[in-house]
């Protein structure tokens, strides 16, 4: 059995803006193992969101290769890539990305319906119970707090039992207490359900929930640390800011 949920090899992403060539990723090699929680950090413009987007198949790399499990993404058509994202990848974003016209339950099951898959009632009930939304299933997003909306987004990401959940600043719009509750949910997804979570964050406290912390600068991985604690993470980020 392949223990790697995600692997990237010599991943490069170059953008052309205003006649300038900008290297967002410069030959990144990294693997994310099943049942682990990794935080990806770094200064603004370091390439962390680009790493997430290319690893998740949302953006095509300029060079290098990406695997989700044993599936290599570069050979997939856009249709096959879309199917893979719907069934094997979960997403949680800072902006929640919920559909206002749909109920909580409809938002949670949307990826399954789009993939033509019938929801497993037992699993759906467990996911809803885990995120604490059992009494909110008929509500619409506008009737929920920000923290509740992010819980819906996490439930939606869990609904397909994906290989990996990619999170881009999932607590960036939340207050401290609500952020802690959301991070605890992600942590339990790893510990209880053996999910794989890869989270981009700027917050050392959020990163302290992860098993491992990657620090990017100038499109390269400069630090790859097993959980060092929030204070050590902050020190490393400050050091990278000075060097850059």
Short description:
With 244 residues, the protein is α/β, with parallel strands linked by helices. Helices cover 37% and strands 28% of the residues. The chain is globular and about 50 Å long.
Description:
- This protein has about 240 residues and is of the alpha/beta class.
- The strands form two sheets. The protein has a six-stranded mixed sheet, sandwiched between helices. Strands 2-1-4-5 form a four-stranded antiparallel sheet, covered by helices on one side.
- Helix 3 runs parallel beside helix 5.
- The radius of gyration is 18 Å and the shape is globular.
- The mean pLDDT is about 90.
Q: Topology as H/E string?
A: EEEHEEHEHHHEHEHEEH
Strand order of the largest sheet: 6-7-8-3-9-10
Helix-residue proportion: 25-40%
Largest sheet: 6 strands, mixed
How much strand? 25-35%
Question: Would you tell me the structural class of the helices and strands?
Answer: alpha/beta
Low-confidence stretches: none
Per DSSP E runs of 2 or more residues, the count of β-strands stands at 10
Mean pLDDT: 91
Q: For the CA atoms, what is the radius of gyration?
A: 18 Å
Number of helices: 8
Distance between the termini: 40 Å
Name the shape in a single word. globular
